[in-house]
Amino acid sequence: MIVRSLEDVIGTEREVRGPTWTSRRLVLAREKAGFSVNDTVVHAGAEIKMWYANHIEAVYVIEGRGELVDDETGAKHHLEPGMMYLVDGHERHTLRAHTEFRAVCVFNPPLTGGEVHDDNGVFPLLSEEDE
């Protein structure tokens, strides 16, 4: 059994920063759970284009307001606490944070820890040996 607090992660190698976001990696591939869990904060005013070509992601909003755009269909969805979305078809999408935005994100396959979005908004598919 693993018990870990957000405070245990902040300031360690499990806290990964991008230019517009901070991801606290609570559960990683090394825990052998079959998924990873992140507590992610997106800065107010940020617009992030993503394409999880290698992953499925579930997102549960816990703080802030934003908008999710399906870049393939143009559909827009208002996001607020208590809402979730699932990127299960590898859709290209854009997240716009109207305020500071915080969410719990679950990835399958699991992240190994150091992933950041590439120029296409993709997280590379890494194994523990790649880290």
Keywords:
single chain, 131 residues, mainly beta, Jelly Rolls, six-stranded antiparallel beta sheet, four-stranded antiparallel beta sheet, 1 helix, 10 strands
Short description:
It is built from 1 helix and 10 strands. The protein is mostly beta strands and 131 residues long. Pathway: Amine and polyamine biosynthesis; ectoine biosynthesis; L-ectoine from L-aspartate 4-semialdehyde: step 3/3.
Helix content: under 10%
Number of strands: 10
Provide the low-confidence segments as ranges.
Answer: none
Report mean pLDDT, rounded to a whole number: 92
Question: What is the overall silhouette?
Answer: globular
- Helix and strand content put the structural class at mainly beta
Largest sheet: 6 strands, antiparallel
Topology as H/E string? HEEEEEEEEEE
Give the N-terminus to C-terminus distance in angstroms: 24 Å
